Amino acid sequence: MLRxxxxxxxxxxxxxxxxxxxxxDIAVARIFEAKGRPSFxxxxxxxxxxxxxxxxxxxxARAERMAERFWPGPLSLVLQRASHCPVSLLASAGLDTxxxxxxxxxxxxxxxRATGRPLAAPSANRSGRVSPTTSAxxxxxxxxxxxxxLDGGPCQVGIESTVLDLSGNEPTxxxxxxxxxxxxxxxxxxxxxxxxxxxxxxxxxxxxxxYAPRQPLRLDVVAARPxxxxxxxxxxxxxxxxxxxxxxxxxxxxxEAAANLFASLRVLDRPDVIGxxxxxxxxxxxxxxxxxxxxxxxxxxxx
Length: 303
Ligand code: TXA
Ligand code: MG
Prior knowledge:
The protein is 26% helix and 17% strand. By secondary structure, the chain is α/β, with parallel strands linked by helices. The chain has two domains: 8-193, DHBP synthase, CATH 3.90.870; 217-297, Threonylcarbamoyl-AMP synthase, C-terminal domain (Rossmann fold), CATH 3.40.50. The relative contact order is 0.15. Magnesium ion (MG) binds at residues 122-123, 131.
């Protein structure tokens, strides 16, 4: 189906991807169509190993070190496209760079090898909605718009890959994700964070309201408002008076919280609650990525 230009959703260790042949303009166009995503937003291209990445993009010494250390894994590298890069320009949204990663999931790797094509795969949700971490989430949003879903059970990491831009002189994290900034800095030294301290967002995916449940979100909550549901984070007790409580992690484990984040938001995003309140989440490690997602979900909605 993928070789025929159809779309197949597949599991990765982060979230489910909406896969299409990255070398086919029509397949990539179908991805944007299925997602209802603005077409200026470039996609991540998935490959089975670093040598497949070298056929598509220029890996300098920094990129080679990052690939060696973190692939397969939740790190996407933004690199200069190779001179005869076969990937559709639409996947790069017209940029001369490409975001590439090797997913750490046996089904994803088997699919990439069997297909023999790089697969462009954004998260398999409609644009602006939370990312899917089970095949049921994918079907709920994309049934009728894609040919198939490969079911690999729930995703382990539960939050998207970190997007690291190595296309310029200064390594820059464009999107926080499954690999913490501290882990990257242990290999590369200091890296910049895009979109902080008034800098313009460099990744078009960093739109403020990109991750939006339908119900309003209230962050750093310590007391209930009538009708709200609570997204809890331990190890402390949940404040009383909420219509329903879902724990990101009862014990205060940030890795567990990341794995539960999108599924919990979906469960609480119901018409009979008036909003979702979220307990404070610490900012270190994966907490930075979780808070980034929550802040976006809580941001005022665009038109
Ligand atoms: O974990 C993940 O990364 C998942 C799974 C399926 O691999 N994929 C995913 O893809 O989250 P997507 O398309 O939803 O997010 C791609 C992110 C966006 O923020 C996009 O703007 C950025 O990567 N991006 C992609 N190509 C880029 C480029 N050439 N330059 C700058 N940013 C880029
Ligand atoms: Mg997404």
